[in-house]
Amino acid sequence: MGLTLQNLDKTVGRQIHLKDIQLEFETGSRNIILGRTLSGKTSLLRIIAGLDHPSRGRIIMDGKDVTGVSVRKRNIAMVYQQFINYPSLTIYDNIASPLKMSGLSRNEIDGRVRAAAEMLHLEKLLGRLPAELSGGQQQRTAIARALVKDAALLLLDEPLVNLDYKLREELRVELQEIFNKRDSIVIYTTTEPTEALMFGGNIVVLDEGRVLQTGPTPQVYHHPATLKVAEVFSDPPINYLKAGIDKGVLQLGDNIRVPLNGRYSSLSPGKYVVGIRSNHLCLSRRHEKDTEFKARVELSEINGSETFTHLKYGETALVVQDEGVFPHKIGTEISVYVSPDAFFIYDEAGVLKASPGAGQRS
Amino acid sequence: MKIRKRTFGLALYCGLLMLPIYWMLNMSLRTNADILGHFAFYPKDATLMNYINIFTDKAWYSGYINSIIYVSINTLISLATALPAAYAFSRYRFLGDKHMFFWLLTNRMAPAAVFALPFFQLYSTVALIDTHIAVALAHCLFNVPLAVWILEGFMSGIPREIDETAFIDGYGFPRFFVTIFIPLIRAGVGVTAFFCFMFSWVELLFARTLTTTNAKPIAATMTRTVSATGLDWGLLAAAGVLTIVPGALVIWFVRNHLAKGFALGRV
User: Does B52 fall in a domain?
Assistant: First the structure.
C-alpha cells in the first residue's frame, strides 16, 4: 500500500521537466525530495497532487490508478512555498475551508479547527485576516489548513524557505513532531541538505528532472552514489580533486600524496575523482595522520562561530568549513589538512567506489 | 508660498473645469426669455419650471428610464460574459489565445458608425428594433472587450495557487468562483461596471439608430428641443444637468474601488 509512480515523464514544449520517474512511497513514511532550484521538485509534487498531468506514466495510490483523477477527488493536502491563504476569509475560515467541503457538522469542524490552530499556535489570531499576520503566521495558517483534514497524502513544497532563520528552525522542529503523529504519506521538498538530514526519513535526490538516488536519508548522505548526488547533498558544495592511484598511493591534484589504507586499499590503480566535504578539510592539524598541503586564500566568510575559507589550490577552488573564527588575509598561502579517511572516491564516470562510511567523524 | 501657488493653480483648474457645468445649471434655472434677454452670472428669478416640465412630460422622463434600463442590462450582460472569459484568458493557455485577446480589443478600435447599418438590418430582421435589449446587446460590442481587458488584468494579479488550493480543498468551480475568487477582484468588478455604465450611457449612435419610441434614449429625446420657434435653451440645460446625475452617482458609489482599480489593474 502507498503511493507508486510508474515511468513518469513530464515534457513542456521541448523541455524535459521530469524523465522516467519511478518511485514508491509507503503509507506513513516521511519523504524528502532534495534537489536544487529547477531540478523538478515542484513539477513532481504538482503531478503527485494531480494539479498537472504527466506526459507519460501512471500514478497508483493504494492500488488504484489515479493518474487522470481530478485534484478535487483526491484526498491530498498541499502547502506552497509562497504563503497561500484566502485573503478574504478570516484565519478561522481559512483553516475550516477544507472541512466545510466535506460536510462535517458544525461542532466537529469547530473542534478540529481549534485543535489545528492550537498545534500551530494560532489560537489568538483566528478572527484576523491573513494580510494582518506576519509571514510566519501566514505560513502556519497554510500548514494548519493542510493538517486539518486527514489527507492520505501531505505535500509540502519548500514550506519554510520564505521564512526568516529563527522561525524556520522553530517550525522545522514543530513540523517533525506533527508529522510523527500522523499516518499519512508526507512528502517534503527542500534545497537544503541540512534540512533533509534533520527530517531524516527517506530521501529522493533529484537533478534535472531525473532521480539520482533514493534511500534512507543518512545512508544516502554517507554514500552518495555519484558525484552529482554528493554535489547536491553537501552544503557548501563538495570539493573535487582529480586523483590517481598508483602503487597504493593516492595522488591528489598536483602534489598531495596520501598513502592508502583501510577501506581504500582495495582500489585498483587508475584515474579517479576525489570528493572531500568542506567539513573534512581543516586549517589546523587534528590528527597526526592528516595530510598537509598549501593553498591560497581567496575569501574568508565568517558565519558566527564557523569560518568558510575559500581557497585556490592550483586551478581548483576549495571551501574549508572550520569551527572557530579564522580571519585570513586574501592572497596568503596557508596550510590545509585533510584526514586520509575522509575521501569519497569516484571513478572517471562519477560512480562511487569508496566512501568514508558513517563511522567517521563528520 | 509654494503651497499657495499650487492651491491657486488647482483652484483655477477646477474653476475652468466646472464653468460649463455651472453655466448649464445656471441656464436650467432660468426661463428662455430671461436667458436670451440679458447676461447674468446667477439666476435672479430662479425657476424650477424646466425641471417640472421634464418630470411631468412622459416623453421626457421615459427617455431617462429607457436609458437607465438598457445601460443596466448592458452592464449586467457585459459582466456576466466578461468574468468567465477573463478567467479563461488569465488562467489557461490555448491555441491562439493571445490573438483572440487582441482581436477582442480591436473591436473597440472600429468606429461605431461602421456597424450601425448592419446592426439596423439585423435587428430589424429579428424584430428587435426599438427594444431595450437591442441597445444593450449592441453596446456589448465595445463593452465586453473592455470588460475582459480590465478584468483579465485584475485576475492575473491573483496567484494561481489560490485557485489550486481551493480545488485541493474540494471546492467545485462555480462555488470557488463566486465565494472565493470574485471577492478577491471586487475592485476590478467595480471599475469594470463603472466603465460599462459610462460608455453605454454616453453612446448615442447605436442607441438612436436602434430605437424609435418605446426605447428612445434621453440623448435622442433632447434633440426634440429644436423646433420652428427656436431652441428651448432652459429645457435643454435642465435635461443636460439630469444626464450628469446618474454618472455622478455611480462615480460616488465606486469611488474607493475606482482609486484602487486605477492603481492596481489595467485601466
Answer: no
